[in-house]
Amino acid sequence: MKLLILLLILLMLILSPINSESRLVKYLPGFPGNLPFKLHTGYVGVGKGEEVQLFYYFIESERDPETDPLLLWLTGGPGCTSLSAIYFEHIGPLSFNYTGVYFNRTTSTWETDLPALQLNPYSWTKVSNILFLESPVGTGFSYATNAESYYTTDIKSSKQIYEFIQKFLMEHPQFAKNPLYVGGSSYCGLIVPFITQDIVNGNEGETGSHINIKGYVLGSPLTDPFDTDRIGKIKFVHRVSLLSDDLYESTKVSCGAPYWNVSSAECENNVQAVLDFVAPLNDENMLEPKCDNSFPSIWCRKNYNLIIDNWANNPQVREALNVREGTVGHWTRCNQTLKTQSYMTTMISSFGYHQYLTNRPIRALIYGGDQELSATYVGILRWIKRLDVVIDDDWRPWFVNDLVAGYVTKYSNGHYNLTFTTVKGAGHCPSEYKPQESLAMFQRWLAHSSL
């Protein structure tokens, strides 16, 4: 049966209407000289007739690509490019050098001829092969061959990702034996557990090619927006003294968890008061200023798109990345039109997928910054404690260079293991703020070492 499935997948690849392709990228505009690591880019067609063409960046491990794990990494949004993870979240081996960037007061824009690239010493490719995928369709350089195929949902795009990884490994059989982890941040907290479950089910039911899945990795994950995430945020802002005890208790009594069922005037007033208290804060990192849109400083993280848009829309960059000409018009870091025009959120919660995986031989790394309001560590811990797991290693500090880097707790259920850790001083997507600590965390976890 499994041999028949493999033959069918191979036949699909051979008869593909648009051949999948992978090309080695030896240089990138903005970086001096040849790249000191192996970067491959390409497309894999998925869906009926392969009308959806998913673009990827595959970066081989700088240590031992033959045996190091393969990490499939997805970026949140939905609709945000994988280049965000590579350049800004320090998951990849390059970052931007902002020397030469200047503010044009006439046009009120930040300008540069071509942003310069520099090596990132804390890239996760130091210890892992990483496959950065532009998903869902319409993200980054991924595109569809017809207008109808741009319409998608959480479930549909997740199924396409499962199809993608099967085809990628068929095309790159030398990596099929490597341990596979599925990872992502932010909105991908809804997607990654579902994909992991799909892979596990495919292996068990022999409904697809066997994949050497070992676990999943989630940073600042959205999990249950209308329950644990919202409750966690209210509890967190009270815990860090942003809410008075009186308002916190009044909100609990008048609204009841999860604080969104505004069934009374008192509840509505309390919720609005809570929102007013946190409104002046930067939701992604409350230690950083909330940027004033009237003067878009490049040092405001939300304005990083001013630089990356310039780079990715450069014709020489697109040629170097082997982007198919005419498939994508103006490129944006986060395609906001997806959420308003072509993408439908159909997953209300991913908790059930986590729960399902606790009965499988799977490892999970869940981490979050202790200064973010978007997906607070309090909310993350709330849903973790609801899983059928027991504590193996209770809450304790972990260290990098003899300094506290965060706090870690380990859980298990038979052969299922979950490590939860905070990253001290970090905001949403912690590796963006604490790259050295985040690499240490990932490296130790991969090696089954104590954080």
From TrEMBL:
Keywords: Signal. It holds the Pfam family Peptidase_S10. It comes from Spinacia oleracea (Spinach). PANTHER family: SERINE CARBOXYPEPTIDASE-LIKE 7 ISOFORM X1, SERINE PROTEASE FAMILY S10 SERINE CARBOXYPEPTIDASE. This is Serine carboxypeptidase-like 16 isoform X2. GO terms for biological process: proteolysis; secondary metabolic process. It comes from the Eukaryota. InterPro entries: AB_hydrolase_fold, Peptidase_S10. Residues 1-20 form the signal peptide. GO terms for molecular function: acyltransferase activity, transferring groups other than amino-acyl groups; serine-type carboxypeptidase activity. Belongs to the peptidase S10 family.
